[in-house]
């Protein structure tokens, strides 16, 4: 059982197993262990009547074997999937003995855009809104398997797409045989959607304003700063996710191998890391739901002073440190491999923050501090527009 857990952790560290798959597999292992323990207890209780229940015990044994075989098959399928993902990643190994570097700029004047999609196979992506009306994409390119400048330039242009059509800006690359570090500049505007993706590279977003934003990388860090977004989803397989001085209405962030850090304002949140700490510092009193879950890391939460809160903490092997004045411990469980605490704190307000913090092998810490800045929660202008149109 312990070897299987270690193997799952190693697969996560390679950046090939999703958080959902890993947690599902761990929960399945726990259920298998619980089932075995239950079966052993039943066998001891039935030992005195073995001669009377021999037939029933044989049926139970057969059922156990069938369940074990089913679980083994499920594990094999997951590990086969992981093996295929590893092969896919290895296919991205580049020959470094032959390459050429080029620079290229895509630019469009007086651009009228409402949605943005940046999708790069290999390379870092930086996104920034600026005070000009032009769209500008700066590319630093390394083309592999050639050392000829013109051939490399032609290969890059033939394997990349820059379009601005129907109020949508799109830039994509289509070959694993080049690395494209990209800097995107767009006018100051609240966009309907922003999508930033790369297979291998970090993503840096600054001064972003949007209704909906999706950020995803397989191998790289994600950093979001000074941004106001209604809904944001951020995911990386191997890397940290860092939010700094941002105001996001709904945020979901997932990483398999890395830390999640938050400093800003949100209304609802869902943070998950398999192998990494989760650190959250809230800067206003408008938060409604905080969900944080990690397997091998710790969870640290800093709240504004006098926040009314209802919370639930869980851990298998870690401890809880709730440094909040005036809390009421409603339910507390301190078993050998399962700890749980439910608590609340009330003030003269109808607004409560609900906290769910689950650190399977780590500790949970919740304390309070001064707010950096008060911000009103973001309203979803797109939803309001749609509602008005329906009413008409």
From TrEMBL:
YvlB/LiaX N-terminal domain mapped to chain residues: 4-34
Biased composition (Basic and acidic residues): 368-378
Protein name (database record): DUF4097 domain-containing protein
InterPro entries: PspC, Toastrack_DUF4097, UCP012569, YvlB/LiaX_N
Species annotation: Heyndrickxia ginsengihumi
Residues of the DUF4097 domain: 113-336
Coiled coil: none
Annotated region described as Disordered, given as residue ranges: 30-68, 368-392
Superkingdom, natural source: Bacteria
């Amino acid at each position: 059982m312990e070897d299987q857990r270690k193997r799952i952790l190693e697969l996560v560290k390679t950046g090939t197993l999703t958080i959902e798959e890993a947690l599902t597999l761990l929960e399945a292992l726990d259920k298998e262990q619980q089932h075995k323990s239950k079966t052993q207890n039943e066998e001891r209780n039935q030992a005195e009547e073995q001669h009377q229940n021999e037939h029933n015990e044989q049926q139970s044994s057969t059922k156990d074997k069938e369940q074990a075989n089913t679980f083994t098959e499920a594990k094999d399928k997951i590990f086969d999937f992981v093996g295929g993902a590893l092969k896919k990643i290895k296919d991205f190994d580049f020959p470094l003995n032959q390459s050429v570097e080029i620079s290229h700029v895509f630019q469009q004047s007086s651009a009228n855009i409402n949605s943005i999609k940046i999708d790069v196979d290999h390379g870092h992506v930086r996104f920034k809104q600026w005070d000009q009306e032009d769209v500008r994409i700066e590319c630093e390119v390394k083309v592999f398997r050639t050392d000829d400048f013109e051939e490399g330039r032609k290969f890059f242009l033939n394997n990349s797409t820059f379009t601005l059509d129907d109020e949508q800006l799109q830039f994509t690359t289509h070959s694993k045989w080049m690395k494209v570090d990209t800097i995107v500049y767009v006018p100051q505007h609240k966009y309907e959607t922003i999508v930033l993706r790369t297979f291998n590279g970090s993503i840096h977003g600054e001064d972003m304003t949007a209704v909906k934003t999706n950020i995803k990388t397989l191998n790289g860090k994600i950093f979001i700063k000074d941004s106001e977004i209604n809904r944001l989803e951020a995911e990386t397989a191997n890397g940290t996710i860092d939010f700094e001085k941002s105001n996001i209405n709904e945020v979901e962030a997932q990483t398999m191998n890395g830390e999640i850090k938050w400093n800003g304002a949100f209304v609802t949140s869902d943070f998950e890391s398999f192998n990494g700490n989760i650190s959250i510092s809230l800067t206003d009193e408008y938060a409604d739901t905080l969900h944080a879950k990690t397997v091998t890391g710790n969870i640290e939460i800093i709240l504004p002073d006098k926040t009314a809160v209802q919370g639930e903490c869980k851990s298998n092997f870690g401890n809880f440190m709730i440094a909040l004045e005036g809390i009421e411990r409603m339910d507390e469980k301190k078993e050998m491999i399962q700890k749980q605490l439910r608590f609340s704190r009330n003030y003269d307000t109808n607004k409560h923050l609900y906290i769910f913090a689950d650190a399977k092998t780590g500790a949970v810490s919740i304390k309070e501090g001064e707010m950096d800045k008060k911000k009103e929660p973001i309203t979803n202008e797109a939803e309001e527009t749609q509602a008005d149109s329906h009413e008409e």
